[in-house]
Amino acid sequence: MKTYLECIPCFMQQALKAGKISAKDDKQIKHIFDEVGKIIPSFSMEYTPAEYGAEVYKIISEITGVKDPYKQIKDDSIKDAKKLIPYLKYVISKSDNRLLTAVRIAIAGNIIDFGVNETFSLKDDIEKILVQDFAISDFNYFKSAVKSAKTILYIGDNAGETVFDKLLIEELGNKKIIYVVREIPIINDAIYEDAVNSGLSEVSEIISSGVKAPGTILTQCNKEFLNLFKSSDLVISKGQGNYEGLSDVKRPLFFLLKAKCEVIAKDLNVKKNDIIIKGINLA
Amino acid sequence: MKTYLECIPCFMQQALKAGKISAKDDKQIKHIFDEVGKIIPSFSMEYTPAEYGAEVYKIISEITGVKDPYKQIKDDSIKDAKKLIPYLKYVISKSDNRLLTAVRIAIAGNIIDFGVNETFSLKDDIEKILVQDFAISDFNYFKSAVKSAKTILYIGDNAGETVFDKLLIEELGNKKIIYVVREIPIINDAIYEDAVNSGLSEVSEIISSGVKAPGTILTQCNKEFLNLFKSSDLVISKGQGNYEGLSDVKRPLFFLLKAKCEVIAKDLNVKKNDIIIKGINLA
Predict the structure, then answer these.
(1) Range of the domain at A17
(2) B40, A37: Cβ pair inside 8 Å?
(3) pTM surpassing 0.80?
């Protein structure tokens, strides 16, 4: 997915938000704006928003000296998500369609996103998403792809959401699961330790994609990821950042996400706040 | 009022909005972003948002070659506002407090603002503001200042709102009224011809402040305005842009506005969407 014009004011908004968390004073935030402003002319609209996100957060980290501004927020998100586990396990156990319910829960976890411009209430959003209609649902294809797959590459998104991903992985059956995280801290995206803290090492092997952007940019991925991306029977991509980088790839894969901003909604031809299970390049 | 950090992403948002109205294509909007990005480092937070607004809209106008992108929108706003006049005159005629009701209507007109990031419904907003509590109300001071004034300088804000200002001016009694507009088209701010189209020449003398920003910046004002600003018995300032430039002046004056963004609300210590009649430097 290419960068939309709407993404540029959003980068400034994200710079403000991250600056308020990690900068030592307003002067430092202004300095962040100055440096982000200066690089706008070098942005081509042909690249994905996640690639520019990487540039913006790199500037923030360089100016503030804070490598992981969302560390505390990520830890809190994981803790909050874990508190809901008994309730969510109960919901799955009572469900007529355990896999679909676990997919809904994994999508609900995707609202734990501090990059996008919105506040959220985790419990309320889960309740909504448990009964919300899908704007795009390739669930039947997804179900049969899960059934026939031996190896599944599961590309994670945000810390906290990781806890709910574990619930979905537990419903995928006895498969070899590789769970993918980012190479370095960026916004509240999950890195290796966040995945471990979320219990994902109990149900999967955790690897880094090698990417330093808030998404999956194939040109930035390491060999291990690229090999698995090629060879895995099934690829599951969570969230907006991964969609941005992978929406145009040639292999079959499934996007599970909630469209949290107008730009992603427009690209998917759905409405903001819609939820989707979208398969591409299906046989 | 100084520029807040929140204003900088808002300038980018405004550039997008105005670009979409006046640019010939997306490439031209990207060019606008590039040029706005480049000047951010030169922004000092000591100046008012209106001064930077002037820079941003100057860039848009230079790149697009469109001098008055909001011309059609302004004409439509004036036409729409005029349609409500019979109803609003009836509301005033039935009111226990004609002056206060006319003040409310003039404030309601202030929502016709295409700079700030919101959509609005004119009729609905008027209905709300007719019964809304004031977050700050110096109405009694305002009333007595009106009573004793012989000369009133009324600083207008947006085209369309001008129509409602006329209704308030008609309630001010037999005074010498000078109505102030911007020097050049900027966003949907009223210029001379908008004031005339709104019927203001029937009830006041219309002058330009000389300012090319979406507000009143005293250092940019012409001599005629500055003399009147000094000598008038009463000064009424409408809207956010004028507040930004005049909030720290030393003479008595009254601000009539709705706080349409978080930044103005914060500066006034009220909540977003609150309405105010605020007098400063009152004896």
Answers:
(1) 7-64
(2) yes
(3) yes
